[in-house]
Amino acid sequence: MLTACPASHSTGGIHRARRGSAAGKELPTLTEVNGDVSGYRERLFKFVESQSVELSFSERIAPAKGLSHGGKITLLAGMQPAEEFSTLVHEIAHEMLHRGDRRTLTTKQVRETEAEAVAFVVCQSVGLQNGTASQDYIQLWHGDANLLRESLEAVQQTAAVILGGIARGIAPEPAALAAAA
Question: What is the DSSP letter of 59?
């Protein structure tokens, strides 16, 4: 069962719970991402498709904004374009980094920190304003500077592949994908 509880990653990655409760605890409301994603949004959709990942939208995943579950990403319907873009980058980062063998070698804390760090890098690169959204989310998962340092290579490679894909509007070479995994 997929829930809004951030600890339920065994059935899928949950990005940025908006508000609500899980296990009787109120979930925090996180800062929104703002800016113009003109052109990049459609390229990101094409990139996701090129990765053989199915993308769908649903209101039923609320309060979560996004779910990644092995070859399928579901985004919350009706988000603002910049928030949708950031959430989709977070979820495709999960698909690229945390499927297969690497998933069993990392903790939930590492996976969420890495995916959000990738989203931060990509969003900043296309001119979006994250405010404290990424910092808030990483802190929610108890990520810190040491964890980010340890994950830096994976984050940089994955962000570079996504940025390369959306800059050209085409899929990266298979060798680039293998390097990111």
Answer: S
What is the per-residue pLDDT for 108? 87
In a domain, 177, yes or no: no
Model pTM score: 0.74
- State the total domains in the chain: 1
Whether 4 is in a domain gets the answer no
Residues ≥6 apart with Cβ < 8 Å to 38: none
Contacts 24+ apart (CB under 8 A), 167-172: 167/43, 169/43, 169/46, 170/46, 170/50, 171/47, 171/50, 171/51
Structural domain includes residue 62: yes
DSSP at 28: P
Q: How far does CA 90 lie from the centroid of its chain?
A: 1
In a domain, 55, yes or no: yes
Strands (E), the chain: 13-15, 20-22, 25-27, 54-58, 66-68, 72-76
What is the block-wise mean pLDDT of the chain (181 residues), using blocks of 10 residues?
Answer: 30 40 49 86 96 97 93 97 96 90 80 90 91 71 72 90 84 51 53
Expressed as residue numbers, the domain containing 56 is: 9-172
